[in-house]
UniProtKB/TrEMBL annotation:
EC number(s) per entry: 7.6.2.9
Molecular function terms from GO: ABC-type ferric iron transporter activity; ABC-type quaternary ammonium compound transporting activity; ATP binding; ATP hydrolysis activity
This protein's name: ABC-type quaternary amine transporter
Keywords: ATP-binding, Cell membrane, Ion transport, Iron, Iron transport, Membrane, Nucleotide-binding, Transport
């Protein structure tokens, strides 16, 4: 950690490995969380999210690796000695205590009666609960209200960091969104450093400043929400974070000034929808294989990048689904095996059989068919690269 990191990094976990018996549930986990920010750890069920949260909270000591808070090694420090609050999936409120009692429970021992009253009133206000609600028991509240009480209780100790373990998953869709927004606002107002664990991609993208994608016990990608959504590091991550349109492609030319196939390089790629600007995103790509014009692979676009255009490529609508705010359609292009999905805002559904013309807006991401990515690809699949007679360009590894 350098001096600049020390100024802003609140949490740093490095090289974390966790095993349960023979099962390795986390490995090579490196994550930095800056003070005052919100990080979402998102991944499918069983990917190790809760285990990682437990390591950070101090309920689980990893086999390898270390956890640092403000630069201090706390790997073996007990949970109650770390200034970290935890909000569980169901809130874990005490059923026999009323709301005020639950919140007061979070206050340090020895807090005077007057101070308790002041803090509880302050916290009730912070989480927008009324004095009337303060005297109710948890079973007399809605799910969203219960989660706000749980947050107030966790904030009572004024922890440096709050960990949220799937706190919205028991709520129905509408309540889930409003509670999420309310809790996000509270955490912003209080400047609390937060880590949210969720399996819900939309939740992760809308809640956090930084999203960490966990798969099979490994962090595949860490970045800003728009970064991981628009430039996911591999196909699996792209599909996990939202609908992905995958088209066969081949690199044709690099744009001026682009010398290598390293991450961030922009190329043109052929696709069934015409030429598309694509980016090579994986920071771990061994570039030697990509500095060959004609390299084959897949171009990833998001459905909202596919638009109807008179000048576009012809296709036939197979089906359409109406969601109110947007409409999706599956369109079959001639010569392309899998139908592709497009998403239109505020549009009426397209009838099956309708002929449409499609074009691409913006740039895509290129995943080479040859992948020897050590960090991201669980199973590297070497395939031959079609070079189309191009001369390999020098690699600048
Ligand atoms: N105490 C334990 N003993 C043995 N195995 C465990 C234990 N806790 C978790 N596991 C296993 O570790 C793996 C990761 O579990 P974890 O709960 O961390 O995943 P998760 O991503 O939070 O899953 P979910 O979203 O379903 O809660 C799973 O295969 C789980 O069965």
């Amino acid at each position: 950690m350098n001096a600049t990191d020390n100024d802003t990094t609140m949490l740093q976990v490095s090289g974390i490995e966790v095993r349960f018996g023979d099962q390795r549930v986390l490995h090579d986990i490196d994550l930095k969380v800056r003070a005052g920010t919100t990080t979402a750890i998102v991944g499918p069920s069983g990917s190790g999210k809760t285990s990682l949260l437990r390591v950070i909270a101090g309920f689980l000591v990893p086999e390898h690796g270390e956890v640092r808070l403000h630069g201090e090694d706390v790997t073996s420090v007990a949970a109650h000695r770390r200034s970290i609050g935890l909000v569980a999936q169901d809130g874990a409120l005490f059923p026999h205590l009323d709301v005020a009692g639950n919140i007061a429970f979070g206050l340090p021992r020895g807090t005077s009666r007057r101070e308790r009253h002041r803090r509880v009133t302050e916290l009730l206000e912070l989480v927008s609960l009324t004095a009337d609600q303060a005297s109710r028991r948890p079973d007399q509240l809605s799910g969203g209200q219960r989660q706000r009480v749980a947050l107030a209780r966790a904030l009572a100790r004024q922890p440096e960091m709050i960990l949220l373990d799937e706190p919205f998953s028991a709520l129905d869709a509408g309540l889930r969104e409003s509670t999420r927004q309310a809790i996000r606002d509270i955490l912003r107002i209080t400047g609390t450093t937060t880590i949210l664990v969720t399996h819900d991609q939309d939740e992760a993208l809308s809640f956090a400043d930084q999203v960490a994608v966990l798969k099979d016990g490994r962090l595949r990608q860490i970045g800003a929400p728009e970064e991981v959504y628009t430039r996911p590091c591999d196909v699996e991550t792209a599909q996990f974070l939202g609908d992905a349109v995958l088209l066969p492609g081949a690199l044709t030319s690099q744009l001026p000034g682009q010398l290598t196939g390293k991450a961030g390089a922009v190329w043109d790629s052929t696709t069934p929808l015409g030429s598309v600007n694509v980016e090579l995103v994986c920071p771990n790509l061994a570039t030697a294989h990509l500095t060959v014009s004609g390299a084959a692979g897949q171009v990833m676009l998001r459905p909202e990048q596919i638009t109807l255009s008179d000048q576009g490529v012809a296709g036939t609508v197979l089906s359409s689904q109406y969601f109110g705010h947007d409409t999706t359609a599956l369109v079959q292009l001639e010569g392309v095996e899998a139908p592709l999905r497009l998403r239109q805002l505020n549009a009426v559904p397209l009838a099956a059989g309708t002929q449409v013309h499609l074009a691409v807006q913006g740039s895509g991401v290129f995943y080479p068919a040859f992948s020897d990515c050590r960090a991201c690809s669980a199973r590297p699949v070497p395939v031959s690269i079609e070079t189309r007679g191009a001369t390999p360009m020098p690699s600048f590894l």
